[in-house]
Amino acid sequence: MDFVSDSLSGGRRLKSLTIADDFSHESVDIVVDFGISGQYVTRVLDRAALFRGYPKAVRTDNGPEFTSRAFMAWTQAHGIRHILIQPGRPMQNGYIESLNGKFRDEHLNECWFEALHQARAAAAIWRQDYNEVRPHSSLGRMPPARFAELHRQRAGDAAQLSPTHAPIE
Asked: What distance lies between CA 168 and its chain's CA centroid?
């Protein structure tokens, strides 16, 4: 997880929380708002967990949203390992930095938003294209959503063949 900043045409600051799955390379969510606190981040992650389940670990920088009491309590409550990268070492969270660069270059730098709802709608369109259309060489030239779907199917098949073993995550 990480943040990308932008602003509306009138100068009001926007903050985008980007969440990526290191395994499937899916963009789990991109949330755009005027301000995003640690508690806001936990609500977004709880919403994502409804479909995906809770992650075993999350990797973040040392920003105040990720070191807040609300976020730290959330990781502990769900048994999630919190991996903090070293200050000034963004490449320790390289995949999200790469996704942020693409999002910034293709979304933020190409658009001039007058209202929050426009920025949110454009982020949703970008995320859908990234997940469902773009092939990724690291995934065998498949879009991330297709790769994740195939993985879920294989995990389900493995669970059915061997009911004593838990599905692979």
From this structure: 21
- Count of C-beta atoms within a 10 Å radius of residue 163: 7
Reported as a single tens digit per residue, the pLDDT across 146-166 is 999 998 888 765 555 445 444
**Tokens 């949703």 appear where?**
124
pTM: 0.84
Q: Which helix (H) or strand (E) holds 92?
A: none
- Which structure tokens are listed for 122? 């454009």
| Residue ranges of domains in the chain, CATH in brackets | 2-161 (3.30.420.10)
Cα dist from 151 to 53, 88, 137, 148, whole Å: 15, 34, 17, 5
* CA 154 to the chain's CA centroid: 23
Task: Calculate the CA 71 to chain-centre distance.
Answer: 15
pLDDT of residue 58: 95
> Would you list the DSSP string of 1-20?
-EEEEEE-TTS-EEEEEEEE
**CB contact at 8 A, 45 and 25:** no
> Which tokens in the block code for residue 96?
């999200």
Is 114 buried (19+), middle (13-18) or exposed (0-12) by CB count in 10 A? exposed
